[in-house]
Amino acid sequence: MRSPKHFLYLFLASTSLVVFSFCKGEKPDETTEDTTTGSINVIDNKQISAQNVFNSIPARAEIVRLIGESKIEYDPSYLNNPDVASKYSLENSRALNLGAYGADLSVAGAFDQTQESMLFLKCVNILSKNLGVSTAFDQHMMDRMEAHKENRDSTLEIIAQSFRKADEFLKENERPGTSALILCGSWIEGMYVSVQIAQRINSESIIKTILKQDESLKHLINMVEASNVSADAKYVTDGLNDLKVTFDEAVKKKTYTLETIKDITDKTNALRKKIVETY
């Protein structure tokens, strides 16, 4: 089994896996007309892009350094149940859990859990088919994963390439809301795993790292709200906005205990629970 220092590497892997897919080919600013006032609004795509989310996530080296101080092993109970992938019937739920399973896939891969990786890859394949983006996760992609299973960095890159392909397809077909929800699912799953780890090892350094996600959360909210997700997914945007208020309050305390992130943990757990249990 890979050294425990790699476990919270999964936080960056899980949040950046799908984020990386959204960071290519940023479009220039667009101009729209407000039909209620007749005024012209400039939409700054740089302000709502996933690149901002990516840029505000702590560097990999910092994560590895922090977790090098801790002792923890791979725990599949943190991850979404692979047995329920086929139950997701709503497009929003499929998108959110595609992101979550993508994050889980990166976790299993980071720990060299080949059998677990294949389980989560099947989940990703099921949901991508149901969302109409199966060409991004086809047999060729699975064959590449199998061929590079001994190389963690290569497998994570293959996963990222596939999500990037799915993102491009969704945007080309005017489904930016679905694409944004995939990113939400990945970010929330990463945060969920991180607060579970914090509860187990109670490290001031890890709590500081979690609180640094206040910035990436802000950019995530901007991007999702600009993507016009459907009304059925309003609970996600409401949950993220509520979580942002809690993050801001915790950051102001400038203390780094489990009590500081208690409300963050509770709200993250509740939001993630609704995501994985909404079929």
Could you characterize the architecture of this molecule?
This protein is mainly α. It has one domain (4-21, 46-277). It contains 13 helices and two strands, in the order αββαααααααααααα. The protein has helices at residues 9-22, 45-48, 50-55, 60-67, 91-110, 114-130, 139-147, 152-172, 176-201, 204-211, 213-226, 234-253, 262-277; strands spanning 30-33, 40-43. It has a two-stranded antiparallel ribbon. Strand 1 and strand 2 (40-43) form a beta hairpin.
Q: Secondary-structure map with pairings?
A:
Layout: H1 9-22, E1 30-33, E2 40-43, H2 45-48, H3 50-55, H4 60-67, H5 91-110, H6 114-130, H7 139-147, H8 152-172, H9 176-201, H10 204-211, H11 213-226, H12 234-253, H13 262-277
Antiparallel strand pairs: 1-2
Helix pairs in contact: 1-5, 1-8, 1-9, 5-6, 5-8, 5-9, 9-13, 11-12, 12-13
